[in-house]
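User: Some background: our group keeps a shared notebook of sequences we're curious about, and every so often someone picks one and asks for a predicted structure to add to the entry. Today it's my turn. The entry only has the sequence so far, pasted here. Could you supply the structure so I can complete it?
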Amino acid sequence: MVITKKIGQDLFDDVLLGKKKAEFRLNDFDIQEGDTLSLVEVNNEGKETGRVVEKKVTYVWKCDIKNTYWPVEEILEKGVQVISME
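Assistant: Of course. Here's the predicted structure to add to the notebook entry:
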């Protein structure tokens, strides 16, 4: 399955070059090992730049973290996930 998500310009090149091999995302979608994560680059205004990188998902760690970027209510409801890619 191909899962498409947006990624900021500040991180896109690191993924493209293979330096950034994991994604820390809100656990609000289903993703499994073997899926393809398609990351669409967006600029600071949230508009797509036209660049896309696809990575094979090798590991998904779903965890329960209380202090992150998302509202506590959403974290408590959904948890978060860390996605390793190659």
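Suggested note for the entry: DSSP finds two helices and five strands in the chain. The mean pLDDT is 89.
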